[in-house]
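Narrative of activities, Objective 1.

The group set out to show that a structural description can be obtained from nothing but a protein's sequence at a throughput compatible with the screening campaign. Below is one input-output pair from the validation batch, recorded exactly as produced.
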Amino acid sequence: MAAFEDMVAELERSYLETQARLSDPAVYNDHREAADVGRRLKQLEGPYKLSQEWRQAKADLDAARNDPELGEMTADYEADVARLEEELKLALAERDPADDKDVIVEIRQGVGGDEAALWAAELQRMLQRYAERRGFSFEQLEANANDGGGLKEGVFAIKGDGAYSVFKFEGGTHRVQRVPETESAGRIHTSTATVAVMPEAEDVDVQVDEKDLKIDVYRSSGPGGQSVNTTDSAVRITHLPTGIVVSMQDERSQLQNRDKAMRVLRARLFEAERERQAAEQAAARSAQVGRGDRSEKIRTYNFPENRVTDHRIKLTTYRLDQILQGDLDDYTDALTADEQRRALEG
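Output recorded for this entry:
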């Protein structure tokens, strides 16, 4: 119990210190630092409020135990203290420092040919609708369509406070089971699309040396390979130390394509470093850390049964049509609670 009380005292000290820092003219006049301190204060506000409620509930419980007239209230106060303690433990659980960042999402068709490309396009629409429902902004960075109206690869950014904390759970393999429009015999096919979700890195997160970049420009092309542009506006950037390659051709301006490619490159480098650190921690503890391999099947969407199953938390619902419209909150909430529980156990 003493350890828990120490954690609560540390939370309260951090909150009051952060509050004081925000009032400091030196911080207030530095826009970037003021934004960082403001974000930190917002993170601490909920847990701090819980800590005050917990302290009040403890005081009420002590008063009830020492006052015969309030004795009958003791059980209620004990339940309040236990409930608030549990909520505080979850609030104090270690959180991913990237949770507040914007995200860059890459969707690729997986197994299943044209049907997989159509599914990738539907997944992108689902995530775009979910972003809009949550009040985030959506920005398409690259869309590589195929001749059948599907998506070979799509890259987009989602911006908003806490975007990564919401969309990180979408990273992995999404499997669809349905009868394709091209299937005359009515057989159910299984196809997949993969989603990679990365925190968008700022310059301060990832330093990229120009000497480490090989930049090629070429003429952009559309489905079927036909030339879309008469100038060399498409850009391919290769990060020589890691071999990471990013191509952009959506914009008519070479400069705009270069800027977008650099955003994706920085996000990939940032995520690679996070994964390296997580692997080191895992090796040190002889336990897997992080959210697992992206190639793992995370969710199945079964059209004939109107069913969606998330395999990580064994959650199944029968409202696939609503989920494809971006109604993913039930899954995000359950996955967030599961992450918090695992953080407490760790």
